[in-house]
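RECORD TYPE: inverse folding
INPUT: structure tokens
STRUCTURE:
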């Protein structure tokens, strides 16, 4: 594996739990046990009903392209060789949105509503990032 030089999540608290599951290729989102709302990014309190009661629930791994931005000039040097690339907001079947990338298409092939499925990218020994590829 070549050295991964891009910024990585800070592995603390709920973020550690989220990426720990990703490392096992098992994407989960938090679901409020008071109002059943899913949420992401991980946090202690439900933004819908303010409850602190929740559980991790396995994601279907399916979503669609909600929107994206094409980066032509990277703002961080570690991403400069990737440009142009698209940062994609994926709307998951659970209703949460996840910022990621689509690994099997170029920015001009993206379409709003394009069906996607989860894939995993083990960027370091400890961190696996959720990515997406075209579905169907
Ligand atoms: Zn709630």
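DESIGNED SEQUENCE:
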């Amino acid at each position: 594996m070549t050295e991964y030089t891009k910024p990585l999540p800070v592995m603390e608290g709920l973020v550690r739990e989220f990426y720990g599951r990703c490392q096992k290729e098992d994407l989960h989102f938090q679901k409020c046990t008071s109002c059943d709302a899913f949420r992401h990014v991980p946090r202690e309190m439900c933004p819908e009903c303010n409850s602190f009661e929740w559980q991790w629930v396995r994601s279907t791994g399916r979503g669609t392209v909600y929107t994206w931005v094409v980066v032509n000039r990277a703002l961080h040097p570690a991403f400069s060789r990737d440009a142009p690339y698209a940062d994609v907001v994926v709307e998951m079947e659970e209703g949460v949105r996840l910022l990621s990338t689509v690994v099997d298409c170029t920015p001009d092939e993206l379409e709003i509503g394009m069906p996607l499925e989860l894939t995993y990218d083990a960027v370091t020994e400890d961190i696996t990032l959720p990515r997406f590829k075209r579905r169907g």
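NOTES: Residues 13-134 form one domain.
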